[in-house]
Amino acid sequence: MLEHIRSKKTRRVVGLMSGTSVDGIDSALVEITGDPMDGNVKLIAFENNPFPEEVKDMIISLFDTKHANVEQLGYMNVLLGELYAKAVFSVVHKAGLMIGDVDFVGSHGQTVYHHPEICTFPLELKEYPSDSQRDSYSFGYTMQIGEGAVIAARTGIPCVSDFRVADMAVGGQGAPLVPFTEYLLYRKKDKTVLLQNIGGIGNITVLPKSCSQEEVYAFDTGPGNMIMDGLIHLFTNGEKSYDIGGEVAARGQVNKGLLDTMCRNIYFAMKPPKSTGRELFGKEYYTNLFHKMREQNISMEDALATATEFTAWSIEDSYRQFIMEKEIKRSSASQLIIGGGGSYNHTLIGKIKLRMEPFGIEVLTQEDVGFNSDAKEAVAFAMLADCAIAGKYNNMQLVTGACKPVVMGKISL
Ligand SMILES: Nc1ncnc2c1ncn2[C@@H]1O[C@H](COP(=O)(O)OP(=O)(O)OP(=O)(O)O)[C@@H](O)[C@H]1O
Ligand SMILES: CC(=O)N[C@H]1[C@@H]2OC[C@@H](O2)[C@@H](O)[C@@H]1O[C@H](C)C(=O)O
């Protein structure tokens, strides 16, 4: 079955992504031509299927490790598999094609837990360590659900899923993974390009001028929209799930005292490779922050202005601490291209521009450079799946800290 697909010059692939914002499923139908490493990809159709409210609530309840249980986890793994399969049919239909016209699916799944502890476990063993030796090693773990076998069964085509665990098994953070495809699609001969994704979490990729794959580095910058989304949800009693266009934040004033405290979070002092998630900046974090804000009589507008400034600050701080010096030596970065839902928040973009332009960096959005911001991550998982089908390495060691190259993605035939 795979030989037949591998022999095709052009593969039609559906990439699926549902991110840390838990807003829905992004599906991208693409055509990939030539070698998976050529980066020759054409977007045929894109669709976003928002999660029904009750599904969103069920996913969010899984983030609460004190109350979530294995029964819910098992159920949601299959339910999400069904919803992803439905999303495949939907984007194929939108493209005016039939399911049989697609060769395979690449599905990220839904992250429900991410614990990127540095792995001290010996990678290859001549003999398995004793129980006491094993207990003294630490290892990272991560969990993405949305069963690939269900997607393959419903669609009748192979599905590549569960990418992150292979990188973690060789000591990597298992995140971020999109830099691999950004290297294939965005690198430039004449300038250094910075790609900032602002989803639930923010992450940056540095593509040095004329870089080789080994020179690319990337890491999570901290919260993207997660804290802003959480605060507006609490301030409006669940009426609003995000600050459309950043309009609420635009009316507020930044609370400097609170911002300073937020900036002192330990995550920002950690050196890359690093990745984060809801475990650090999720419900517990923004609920505590909300209570603190209420105690200090901070208005919703000022709260949103402060959280928006915090995200902008985390991007500038990441640049100053971990990128600037290296890139000045090389030739200096000249472009920061912003993607993800945060790129539609005009107040946030304005704040990032104010902070980054003094470094001589032009701030653009994915749309400004001719790409589709919404489709980017779904396209990336189609490309990562294309490598997996071809048996090609698709992790980036410098980005994740993995000890060796691996082929990420499990194939359900
Ligand atoms: N028009 C808009 N105005 C302001 N913010 C917006 C707008 N549209 C989307 N967003 C923000 O973008 C978020 C969704 O972003 P995105 O889909 O990139 O996240 P994700 O892929 O779930 O996250 P991650 O990349 O961390 O996995 C929303 O929760 C919201 O905060
Ligand atoms: C564990 C996990 O799901 N991480 C996500 C999250 O959302 C953004 C950032 O944190 C990034 O590290 C990653 O997603 C993108 C798709 C990535 O792997 O590149």
UniProtKB/TrEMBL annotation:
<dbReference type="GO" id="GO:0097175">
    <property type="term" value="P:1,6-anhydro-N-acetyl-beta-muramic acid catabolic process"/>
</dbReference>
<protein>
    <recommendedName>
        <fullName>Anhydro-N-acetylmuramic acid kinase</fullName>
        <ecNumber>2.7.1.170</ecNumber>
    </recommendedName>
</protein>
<dbReference type="InterPro" id="IPR005338">
    <property type="entry name" value="Anhydro_N_Ac-Mur_kinase"/>
</dbReference>
<dbReference type="GO" id="GO:0006040">
    <property type="term" value="P:amino sugar metabolic process"/>
</dbReference>
<comment type="pathway">
    <text>Cell wall biogenesis; peptidoglycan recycling.</text>
</comment>
<dbReference type="GO" id="GO:0016301">
    <property type="term" value="F:kinase activity"/>
</dbReference>
<keyword id="KW-0418">Kinase</keyword>
<dbReference type="GO" id="GO:0016773">
    <property type="term" value="F:phosphotransferase activity, alcohol group as acceptor"/>
</dbReference>
<keyword id="KW-0547">Nucleotide-binding</keyword>
<keyword id="KW-0808">Transferase</keyword>
<keyword id="KW-0067">ATP-binding</keyword>
<comment type="function">
    <text>Catalyzes the specific phosphorylation of 1,6-anhydro-N-acetylmuramic acid (anhMurNAc) with the simultaneous cleavage of the 1,6-anhydro ring, generating MurNAc-6-P. Is required for the utilization of anhMurNAc either imported from the medium or derived from its own cell wall murein, and thus plays a role in cell wall recycling.</text>
</comment>
<feature type="binding site">
    <location>
        <begin position="19"/>
        <end position="26"/>
    </location>
    <ligand>
        <name>ATP</name>
    </ligand>
</feature>
<dbReference type="GO" id="GO:0005524">
    <property type="term" value="F:ATP binding"/>
</dbReference>
<dbReference type="GO" id="GO:0009254">
    <property type="term" value="P:peptidoglycan turnover"/>
</dbReference>
<comment type="similarity">
    <text>Belongs to the anhydro-N-acetylmuramic acid kinase family.</text>
</comment>
<keyword id="KW-0119">Carbohydrate metabolism</keyword>
<dbReference type="InterPro" id="IPR043129">
    <property type="entry name" value="ATPase_NBD"/>
</dbReference>
<comment type="pathway">
    <text>Amino-sugar metabolism; 1,6-anhydro-N-acetylmuramate degradation.</text>
</comment>
<dbReference type="Pfam" id="PF03702">
    <property type="entry name" value="AnmK"/>
</dbReference>
